[in-house]
């Protein structure tokens, strides 16, 4: 390329580099008339000069572009996309943020976590429940035949939507709706000589008349254990071990009395000695020394059969434990409706650092 042409390019380079340091809108340099004039020159050149001149002008444009880009990178601070205000908003104009210390984990959430951890340490899996289910899982798979009167005991909420069999979907009235799924999910365990062992914390719904002891929405922790040669003694020992750990007691007395559920045989009502007065009698145990806790029993063979488990070879136990009442006793909550009330003065009692 002729020297004259080289000089033309380097002169524009000098002019524009200087200009770039002076202007605010750096990117406008790429549209500078001096640069455009160089491009316009190409068509007037001798054929032998065109290619080399064109390349030199393109090189200049690239050089300016990278200067503009690097300048933008220098002036733009990295953005914290999680920040609740723009990074350039002055401190005085920013929204006031609430201190995290004003919040607290809901007592039901923190106790469900604690309960799950205790059962995990005892070798149980923890499986999440669900909040819409069907007639099969609520009743049929649990040995409630069609028209069984015990179906009415659950005051079950029905949905307008129907399942594939044309029956209304339901809001589960107990966490036992998960038993059939758990038995299927872990049935391979049995072939490997391992037990099926799971707890299922979940929210359940019943059409109850509301008062200080009854809510339409509450929590249960279901437990299910299946293996070879399981006895009712295993069930009682498991629950007793859990309760001693949960209430931080070295010893607890438990007692059972016969009950009826279609999905366990025998079925038991399970009580523990009051951990607050050590069986002496106090306000929490209504001065009886005992607290009636949950329903449990040996899994009915029909429930195992509904999950294709050989009920002649395997047996198991299950329980359904109400969580709200357990927490009410432990935390001294007198009205179950407070849990869903959203009242700050109630929730703040459980803020971090509160050992209550
Ligand atoms: Zn007591």
Count of alpha/pi helices: 11
Percentage beta strand: 15-25%
Distance between the termini: 87 Å
CATH superfamily of the largest domain: Bira Bifunctional Protein, Domain 2
Rg from Cα: 36 Å
* CATH domain class of the largest domain: Alpha Beta
Mean pLDDT: 91
Count of DSSP strands: 9
The general outline is: elongated
CATH architecture of the largest domain: 2-Layer Sandwich
**Main pleated sheet:** 7 strands, mixed
Walk across the major sheet and give the strand order: 1-4-5-9-8-7-6
Please, how many domains? 2
CATH T-level fold name of the largest domain: BirA Bifunctional Protein, domain 2
Percentage of residues assigned to helices: 25-40%
Q: What does the oligomeric state look like here?
A: single chain
Q: Which hetero ligands occur in this complex?
A: zinc ion
Give structural notes.
The chain is α+β, with helices and mostly antiparallel strands. It has two domains: 3-75; 108-350, Bira Bifunctional Protein, Domain 2 (BirA Bifunctional Protein, domain 2, 2-Layer Sandwich), CATH 3.30.930.10. It is built from eleven helices and nine strands. The protein has helices spanning 3-22, 33-42, 47-75, 107-121, 135-138, 179-185, 187-191, 232-247, 301-305, 323-331, 344-347; strands at residues 125-126, 157-162, 168-171, 196-205, 217-228, 254-261, 264-273, 290-299, 314-322. Strands 1-4-5-9-8-7-6 form a seven-stranded mixed beta sheet, with helices on both faces. The model has no long low-confidence stretch (mean pLDDT 91). Bound molecules: zinc ion (ZN).
Brief overview:
This protein is an alpha+beta fold. It has helices at residues 3-22, 33-42, 47-75, 107-121, 135-138, 179-185, 187-191, 232-247, 301-305, 323-331, 344-347; strands at residues 125-126, 157-162, 168-171, 196-205, 217-228, 254-261, 264-273, 290-299, 314-322.
């Amino acid at each position: 390329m002729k020297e004259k042409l080289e000089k033309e390019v380097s002169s524009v380079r000098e002019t524009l580099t200087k200009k770039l340091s002076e202007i605010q809108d750096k990117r406008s340099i790429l549209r500078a008339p001096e640069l455009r004039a160089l491009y316009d020159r190409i068509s007037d050149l001798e054929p032998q000069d065109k290619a080399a001149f064109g390349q030199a002008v393109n090189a200049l444009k690239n050089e300016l572009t990278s200067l503009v880009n690097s300048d933008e990178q220098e002036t733009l601070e990295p953005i914290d996309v999680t920040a609740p205000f723009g990074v350039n908003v002055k401190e005085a104009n920013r929204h006031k943020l609430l201190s995290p210390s004003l919040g607290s984990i809901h007592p039901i959430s923190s106790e469900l976590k604690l309960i799950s951890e205790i059962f995990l340490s005892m070798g149980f899996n923890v499986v999440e429940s669900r909040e819409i289910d069907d007639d099969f899982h609520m009743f049929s798979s649990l040995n409630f035949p069609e028209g069984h009167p015990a179906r009415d005991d659950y005051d079950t909420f029905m949905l307008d939507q129907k399942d594939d069999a044309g029956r209304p979907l339901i809001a589960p009235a107990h966490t036992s709706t998960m038993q059939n799924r758990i038995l299927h999910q872990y049935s391979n365990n049995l072939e490997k000589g391992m037990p099926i062992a799971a707890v299922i914390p979940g929210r359940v719904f019943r059409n109850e008349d509301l008062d200080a002891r009854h809510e339409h929405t509450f929590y249960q922790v279901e437990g299910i254990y299946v293996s070879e040669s399981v006895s009712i003694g295993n069930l009682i020992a498991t629950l007793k071990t859990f309760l001693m750990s949960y209430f931080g007691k070295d010893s607890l007395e438990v007692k059972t009395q016969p009950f009826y559920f279609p999905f366990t045989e025998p079925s038991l009502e399970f009580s523990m000695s009051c951990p607050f007065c050590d069986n002496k009698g106090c306000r929490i145990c209504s001065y009886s020394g005992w607290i009636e806790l949950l329903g449990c029993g040996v899994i009915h063979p029909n429930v195992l059969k509904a999950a294709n488990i050989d009920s002649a070879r395997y047996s198991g136990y299950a329980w359904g434990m109400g969580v709200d009442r357990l927490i009410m006793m432990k935390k001294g909550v007198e009205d179950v409706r407070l849990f869903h009330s959203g009242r700050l003065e109630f929730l703040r009692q459980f803020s971090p650092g509160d050992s209550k």
